[in-house]
Amino acid sequence: MAKSFIQLLKQKITVSVLITVVVFNIFNPMTSDIFVPIIGYIIDPNAHLDDSKITLNKNYEIKYGNFLKQFIISIMVLGLIYYTNRFFSLVQYNN
After folding, report:
1. How much is the pTM?
2. How many Cβ atoms sit within 10 Å of the Cβ of residue 52?
């Protein structure tokens, strides 16, 4: 029983990691090449979003661009997971 449980966990973890890597490799370039330039242009038309920062004084600055980029990627991936799960729930419910 314990061996089959461990084997099941290994299979599920492997599939989860594989799906995560594939989704990240799809959404990261799409976000970097499409959405980040658009949002960066809206926030600051003269700079790139990755380099965006708020300068407090000559020694301190808040770099928010990379965080905003990763936040956009996370929201897109979570949305994909949510709507995929919802789609498969509806398909299962109709059958």
Report:
1. 0.55
2. 19
| 56 Cβ neighbours under 8 A, 6+ residues apart | 62
Place of tokens 């949510």: 82
Range of the domain at 67: 16-94
- HEC profile for the chain? CHHHHHHHHHHHHHHHHHHHHHHHHHHHHHHHHHHHHHHHHHHCCCCCHHHCEEECCCCCEEECHHHHHHHHHHHHHHHHHHHHHHHHHHHHHHC
Q: Are 63 and 53 in contact (CB under 8 A)?
A: yes
**Mean pLDDT for the stretch of residues 3-12:** 69
pLDDT for 60 equals: 92
Note whether residue 1 is domain-resident: no
Q: Is the pLDDT of residue 25 over 80?
A: yes
The region that residue 52 occupies, defined by phi over 0 for left and psi between -120 and 50 for alpha, beta otherwise, is beta
User: For residue 10, is it within any domain?
Assistant: no
Tally of structural domains, the chain: 1
